[in-house]
Amino acid sequence: MTRTSISLPAATAPVARPAGFYLLASITITFLAGSSAPTPLYPVYQALWGFSAATVTAVFSSYVLVLLAALLVFGRLSDHVGRKPVILVAILLQLVAMVVFADARGVNALYAGRIIQGLATGAALAAIGAGMLDLDRAKGTIANAVAPAVGTALGGFVSGLLVHYLPAPTHLVYGVLAAVYLLQGLGIALMPEPGQRRAGAWASLRPQLATPEGVRGPLRTAIPILVAGWALAGFYASLGPGLVHRAFGVDASLGGGFALFLLAGSAGIAVLVLRELSAQRLMQVGAAALATGMAGVLWALATHSPGVFLVAAIVAGVGFGTGFQGGVRSVLATATAAERAGVLAVVFLVSYVAMGLPALVAGFVAVRTGNLAATGLGFGALVLALALCALRASTSPAPTRAIARILE
Fold first, then answer.
1. I want to staple 359 with a disulfide (CB 3.0 to 4.6 A). Which of 106, 234, 271, 405 is the partner?
2. Within a domain: residue 45?
3. What confidence tens digit (pLDDT) does each residue in 292-303 have?
4. What is the residue range of 40's domain?
């Protein structure tokens, strides 16, 4: 069958093209903010319903696993039906998730909310990222690295503040996010379609990890830094609040949210400040900062030093941001417009596996051993080892045969 490429008509009262770019970036921010918003609330839910640390990581990992499945199934869909339909459906699902969270009366509701949220975020990430690249290739590459970090930072920190200082902690943050999603959905409805329709929408739903031949080499080189950075994010998002409380005696909700804010906030700033560096150099700087920062975090947890912990979180965040930016930039450099959503889906798939799997294992280990501090140190040591591997790979990129076979 011959492929066709049909430009989609603009809406009656379209959002201007530059405004459309920033609208898409804002949706990535709010989607990732929504994903990190429950993190400071987990101690509150634990106090209300009496579940274990293993349940916390299982709830967190249910979001990641569904997100991965959504990326596999829907990651390439917007390359065929356009960006807007996929994003609008994802926003609708996010609104449903906010209602489920706000009305939660037990652990099952947390699972349900996380599953719906994972489906929405997984379906939208590649479509939004590709849409930004459609509108502005240079800015889109930067925004695809900055927006997730900014969203994660804002979600964890703002949620922590709301939980600690304002009434109705298990309702207010979800109400605020729902209002924002409604406004963003209206903006997307009025926005001209940035992409194009192509034949093969149904075939694109068949899960696959295949990548275009020209992308495979850069992706293999980027995988170590992607895995190390997102494993670090999983460490902060799952065990962070409990470890901060145990090590420093700080309120888990506020301290965990602030730690995540420092990590992700410094990541976003680093991407903007160091954006002129080459992709290879960014990955090298990222790996070195990740290793240094994670070593500092481990030292701070072992010695109960909050000052060292804060500085180390910032350094690790710099590594997370620059490493991810370098990886994304190198992978997207050879991808065509028709391949962008699919390639981004693979990048996010690798990233979220790295974030979710170690966190899930750590949660069960913490419950089985009854030692959260030792589990946190072990998890941190794993992240440090991954960062050192990424540093070696970025200075002497030589992909293993196993990774090569997976991506063929």
1. 234
2. yes
3. 988 988 888 888
4. 12-407
